[in-house]
């Protein structure tokens, strides 16, 4: 049986989060979506209980809203939270609150979804937008595919086995500059934090559950790459046909 999942809601002070990131040597100017800052803060605050995947909302306001899925409820997170003031000051009271996901999915249930995704694939140690990959081998005698159509195919493959994609809309797209730390190696023992540019796609649509167990696992894991940095959280609400 899959573990119970909770939807967590945390309100963060944007200025305090940026100050924390800068104290960690993370340049906010290179972390346009604040994904790495939030990732580092969650790890510092909650340690092994840091939730993921997560989604940041209201990037341009004084207060950020962070939604996340976790096996642990809000009290468990608070019990394991650091008391360090330079970390805790980013967390608005009362701290994380949670709601339990029903989890009693049934084959055939329909759900509407929203997904902020980073639709890339990795090949030969490099990442590339799945749309640009498709353009490397365009269909002969046909116009190039639309970005939305390529992303729809990519998402359908991500859901395969767990759910069937019934409708899809690419609601927003832009390239975003994000921060990622490199891994230490024998040749390069110091980790660096270069800025990279990646696609950021806001997708909405509808799906039908094919395998409830796999679907629950997919929610817990998240979709696509960069799931620990604010991408891949599948937000859901009942769709037509769910009882």
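Sequence proposed for the structure above (243 residues):
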């Amino acid at each position: 049986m899959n573990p119970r999942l909770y939807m967590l809601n945390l309100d963060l002070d944007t200025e305090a989060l940026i100050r924390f990131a800068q104290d960690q040597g993370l340049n906010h100017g290179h972390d346009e979506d604040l994904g790495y800052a939030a990732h580092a803060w969650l790890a510092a605050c909650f340690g092994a209980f840091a939730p993921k995947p997560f989604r940041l909302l209201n990037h341009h306001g004084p207060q950020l809203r962070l939604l996340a899925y976790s096996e642990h409820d809000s009290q468990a997170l608070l019990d394991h939270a650091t008391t360090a003031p330079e970390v805790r000051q980013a967390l608005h009271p009362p701290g994380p609150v949670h709601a339990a996901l029903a989890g009693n999915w049934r084959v055939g249930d329909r759900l509407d979804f929203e997904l902020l995704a980073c639709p890339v694939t990795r090949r030969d140690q490099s990442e590339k937008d799945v749309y640009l990959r498709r353009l490397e081998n365009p269909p002969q005698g046909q116009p190039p595919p639309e970005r939305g159509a390529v992303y729809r195919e990519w998402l359908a493959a991500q859901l395969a086995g767990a759910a069937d994609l019934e409708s899809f809309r690419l609601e927003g797209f832009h390239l975003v500059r994000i921060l990622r730390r490199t891994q230490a190696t024998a040749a390069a023992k110091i980790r660096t934090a270069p800025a990279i540019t990646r696609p950021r796609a806001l997708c909405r649509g509808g799906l039908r559950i094919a395998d409830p167990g796999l679907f629950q696992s997919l929610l817990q894991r998240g979709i696509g790459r960069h799931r620990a940095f604010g991408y891949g959280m599948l937000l859901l609400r009942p769709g037509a046909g769910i009882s």
